[in-house]
Amino acid sequence: MPCVVEDHSALDIMQMTSVFRRVRHWPRLRSVALESAAWLRYFVKELGFIKSPGNLVNLYLKSPFLLQKLTCNRYDLSSLPLSIQIEITNYCNLSCTCCPRESLKREKGYMAMPLFRKIIDDAAASGITRVHLYLHGEPLLHPNMIEMIGYVKAKRMGISLATNGMLLDREIGKAILSSGINNADHIMFSLLGFSKTVHEKIMRGVVHENVVQNVLDFLELRKSLRINGPVIEAVMYQLADNAHERTNFVKFWRGIVDNVRWIDSVSEQYAQNGKGTCAARSRTCKDLWQRMTIFWNGDVTSCCADLNGESLIGNLRIHNITEVWQAEALTKIKTLHREKRFGEIHLCANCDWL
Predict the structure, then answer these.
(1) Can you tell me the distance from the alpha carbon of 55 to that of 161, in angstroms, rounded to the nearest whole number?
(2) 3-state secondary structure string, 78-102?
(3) Burial class (CB within 10 angstroms; exposed 0-12, middle 13-18, buried 19+) of 70
(4) Assigned CATH topology for domain 80-344
(5) Edge-first strand listing for the sheet containing 312-315
């Protein structure tokens, strides 16, 4: 049976944030300290899942990803990404108020299995150890999602999966838990409200009580199958409509799931369909060095918030991961970020995302 560690991290980080915000003369130090503290606590929590030698091996395989995230190793222009993010579909079953999908102009579709296998084979051969199976859509809509998870796990890679939870019934839950998943993997439930009223107002189309029950059923299935993993997280992005529910959300879910994450802000540009007014960017984006973002058709973009493919740098149907990652187009963007010339990049100039 998995060890469920009671999580106080969200409330602790709230208190830490209050302290560091008072240190107004050290904005960079404050940012680094908060980021490092959050990732350190996140890493320590992983130790609670060590119940066997196999679990220790899984943590070892995940440790390069976690440790490099912790140290924010972001200025190596030649190394490969720590992880890849694959949009297996850009269809979604909800219409959230904080999502810019109404502005989506790209063709919608589902990633084909031959392309998916090619990407995973390439990533595994390149030493990449983590795959994020989500982006601008609901991954549980993909008809081959269980097969995809199984293929990734057969390559001994870790998975992160984000879902709104509406489609995760007991049948799908059991299939996921029987696909080879373990404590190297994370399933994140995006729950943008503690109360039924707020949850259903923000995530239009969701049924609050159904999602809560799906999460509880999934946890019970994990327990009954005696599987030590995946790590199950409840995640909320702070918005104007749900900020007042923060304390109740954290207190409720921390006694149920393995980890609770409250993300202080959603990018104004992202949440307001690119119409938000943001201050000019002031810091380098870590994801340019840590994550490769891949659309369902194989297109690779430099940015996970690139809704319509405005910053494409290659396509993995034609090229491999190394070729795209070291291509001139991406190297130029990284160089501009390293030199803090954000205004010369359309997507980055007023982005407050990462």
Answers:
(1) 19
(2) CCCCCEEEECCECCCCCEECCCCHH
(3) middle
(4) TIM Barrel (3.20.20)
(5) 259-263, 231-237, 186-190, 158-163, 130-132, 83-86, 291-294, 299-301, 312-315
Q: How many whole angstroms separate alpha carbon 24 and alpha carbon 213?
A: 43
**Taking a C-beta distance cutoff of 8 angstroms, is the pair 10, 264 a contact?**
no
pTM: 0.81
In the block, which residue shows the tokens 């109360």? 195
Owner of token pair 């109740």: 248
Tokens of 254: 């921390």
- Asked if 46 contacts 66 with a C-beta cutoff of 8 angstroms, the reply is yes
pLDDT digits (tens, 9 = 90+) for 242-256: 999 999 999 999 889
The predicted-structure confidence for 276-319, as pLDDT tens digits, reads as follows 556 677 788 888 888 999 999 999 999 998 999 999 999 999 99
Q: Are 90 and 108 in contact (CB under 8 A)?
A: yes
User: Measuring CA to CA, which residue among 342, 288, 284, 292 is closest to residue 314?
Assistant: 292
Q: What is the DSSP letter of 28?
A: H
Rounded Cα distance between 236 and 194, Å, is 9
3-state DSSP of 170-196: HHHHHHHHCCCCCCCCEEEEECCCCCH
CB 21 within 8 A of CB 31: no
Q: Is residue 85 very low, low, confident or very high in pLDDT (cuts 50, 70, 90)?
A: very high
Tokens matching residue 311: 């910053």
Residue with tokens 């057969």: 154
- The secondary structure of residue 264, as a DSSP letter, is S
Cis ω for the linkage preceding 100 (within 30 of 0):
no
Tokens read off for 286: 């870590």
Q: Could you list the beta-strand ranges (E) of 191-230.
A: 203-204
What is the spatial distance between Cα 124 and Cα 65, in angstroms, rounded to a whole number?
14
| Token pair recorded at residue 299 | 């297109």
Domain map (residue ranges) of the chain: 28-73, 80-344
